[in-house]
Design goal:
By secondary structure, the protein is mainly alpha-helical. 69% of the residues lie in helices and 0% in strands. Helix 1 runs antiparallel to helix 15. The structure holds heme-as and copper (II) ion. Heme-as binds next to helix 6, helix 8, helix 10, helix 12 and helix 13.
Length: 551
């Protein structure tokens, strides 16, 4: 076996996950294209299609399906690579988990296509979908848990055989992400099983709307870190290897992931700052905790700059910024991810604005938020995943990422960056001027009183141009994926695309960083602190009965 190769038997499940991810990606980006045109008043949908249906499909397929399937593919490949081949049980459970996740996804998609679930990707009450939509969601979560727990099983075997050792950084980070995901899902599982399913099947007459929203956001915020942390894994563990360097600090890297377990969950109220029924004290407390969860991202930014600077200087870079020129810009595996990081600087800064209690009033429910998540999940995360795809698929299929494919890949990331820059800038500015999100109605552009929506960037046309470039870029990516999967020439020993894992010196890393009991315990304490009283109040003071909205 070549170094950097993954056991042949473990490749298939990762490839199946990738196949699902990229199918969802293509349909999801097409839905995005339709949306920008509808909002631009340039497109009228046929009667059987509806704006909110497409918006739901777009959000679910990209933010949930593409990300989750990709993440599990990356985890399965990376865990097999760093901890050794899966045992037969682990392999079997990975397949079962994949199958259940896929089944749940198909059920959800069928309900959305049937027009029975136009409830947006956040699906909280009072919007109501068909009961089977929620059954699909439940299956989806169960499937991810099965895949997650089977990876935890693989890790547990490794630890038993390596008593007293810290696990490889990749595995540590994957386990931290799975822990975060499982704790986060408790909220969505609770609302889906105990609120939505009984309500949607008509077993109960009403639903506690505020409770459903709070349980959703208990899940919804850490969900964004479930997307972000695999990207951070690429930044910490893969990128240094690609540029020929090392992990800057093993302990700092592990610390940042531990901090995510602690602080990413008890902060959901920062999505509900404008909602009645939660007193300002609890909103404020969760705002403070939100500011705590910024710290591990700042640690990450610091570590990345350090990795780049150290490597650039090793290669002979002089002066304050001379090292920047020494980085391997011609290697798309690096450049794609570097651009992804750069997008996260305004993306993260926007998040800090959103989280600032009073400033949230200005941006909440406007297109600004849509701009925000396209330069967080839509670029830093998504484009990191693209950067991984360029070598991960060849690694799994044994084909070559040829020079001409690399050229196409550059074109793909360039178009994605330009499209996103145009679209998200327009969205941020339009949002500041008051353009609402989640609405098909945008007659503003033709309203004299609101002529300011006609600016060069503050314009729904700019947004649509950006969206169109993005769709072309997405189609190009899927073309590259197909090439790498089935058509590119087969690699030999020399040209085999290895799975890059950087060296990380853990000799000085405190052992307690891998004592999960401590971190899970503190995480639950913080959750109890931030949520017990406000949730009890929401339950006690719920208004009698509740209406429902179906589209
Ligand atoms: Fe957010 C809404 C606050 C991060 C995603 N967010 C959303 C929604 C999504 C989302 C999807 O407080 C919409 C939900 C909906 O549909 O309603 N967000 C934050 C905060 C952070 C944050 C404080 N969000 C993310 C990430 C996401 C994401 C990550 C996806 C992956 N967000 C909010 C709030 C709302 C919100 C409110 C609700 C708004 C409302 O009212 O509805 C923080 O985690 C951000 C910290 C990040 C940083 C950046 C560090 C920079 C790094 C890059 C280094 C670069 C290098 C390259 C090394 C402080 C690590 C150098 C390159 C050069 C060129 C120099
Ligand atoms: Cu959030």
């Amino acid at each position: 076996m070549n170094p950097g190769e993954i056991a042949v038997k473990d490749r298939k499940v990762a490839l199946f996950n990738l196949g699902f991810a990229y199918s969802a990606f293509l349909i999801g980006t097409l839905c995005g294209l339709l949306q920008v045109f509808i909002r631009n008043d340039a497109l009228n949908l046929p009667a059987w299609l509806d704006y909110y249906q497409i918006l739901t499909a777009h959000g679910l397929l990209l933010a949930i399906v593409f990300t989750t399937f990709f993440i599990f593919a990356f985890f399965q490949a990376g865990m097999s690579r760093t901890l050794g081949a899966f045992g037969p049980k682990v392999r079997l459970w990975n397949w079962i988990g994949f199958a259940v996740t896929a089944l749940g996804t198909l059920l959800v998609v069928v309900m959305v296509v049937a027009g029975q679930a136009s409830v947006l990707y956040t699906f909280y009450a009072p919007l109501q979908a068909h009961g089977l939509f929620y059954v699909g969601l439940a299956l989806f979560v169960i499937g991810t848990w099965i895949q997650g727990f089977s990876l935890v099983g693989h890790y547990a075997v490794w630890r038993r055989n390596h008593k007293g050792e810290l696990s490889p950084l990749f595995a540590f980070m994957a386990i931290a992400t799975i822990i975060l995901w499982v704790i986060a899902c408790l909220g969505v599982v609770a609302t889906v099983l105990f609120q939505f399913i009984p309500w949607a099947f008509g077993w109960t007459s009403g639903i506690n709307v505020e409770l459903s929203r709070s349980l959703f956001w208990y899940f919804g915020h850490p969900l964004v870190y479930f997307w972000l942390l695999p990207a951070y894994m690429a930044w910490y563990v893969i990128v240094p290897k690609i540029i020929g360097g090392r992990v800057f600090s093993d302990s700092l890297a592990r610390l940042s992931f531990v901090l995510f377990i602690l602080f990413s969950i008890p902060v959901g109220f920062h999505h509900q700052l404008t909602e009645p029924g939660i007193s300002s004290f609890w909103k404020f407390l969760q705002t403070v905790l939100t500011f705590m969860v910024i710290i591990p991202s700042l640690i990450t930014a610091f570590s990345m700059f350090a990795t780049f600077e150290i490597r650039g200087r090793e290669l002979g870079g002089r002066g304050l910024f001379g090292w920047v020129r020494k980085l391997p810009w011609r290697d798309v595996r690096f450049t794609s991810i570097f651009i992804a990081m750069a997008f996260f600087i305004p993306g993260g800064a926007g998040g800090i604005i959103n989280a600032s209690f009073q400033m949230n009033e200005v941006i909440h429910n406007t297109l600004w938020v849509v701009g925000h998540f396209h330069i967080t999940v839509g670029t830093p995360v998504a484009m990191t995943f693209f950067g991984l795809t360029f070598w991960l698929i060849p690694n799994l299929t044994g084909r070559r990422f040829t020079k001409s494919l690399q050229k196409l890949a550059f074109l793909q990331i360039a178009t994605w960056s330009i499209g996103m820059l145009l679209m998200s800038t327009a969205q941020h500015l339009l949002g500041l001027l008051g353009a609402p999100r989640r609405t098909a109605y945008t007659g503003y552009a033709h309203d004299d009183a609101l002529a300011w929506f006609d600016g060069l960037l503050t314009n729904h046309v700019t947004m649509a141009v950006g969206g169109s470039i993005l769709f072309l870029s997405a189609a190009l990516l899927v073309f590259i994926v197909i090439q790498l999967w089935w058509l590119a020439p087969k690699a030999d020993e020399q040209t085999y695309e290895a799975f890059p894992i950087a060296e990380s010196d853990s000799s000085m890393t405190p052992r307690f960083l891998e004592n999960w009991k401590i971190w899970i315990g503190i995480a639950f304490l913080l959750i109890a602190l931030a949520y017990t009283i406000p949730l009890a109040e929401i339950i006690q003071h719920a208004p009698p009965g509740s209406g429902r909205f179906q589209t």
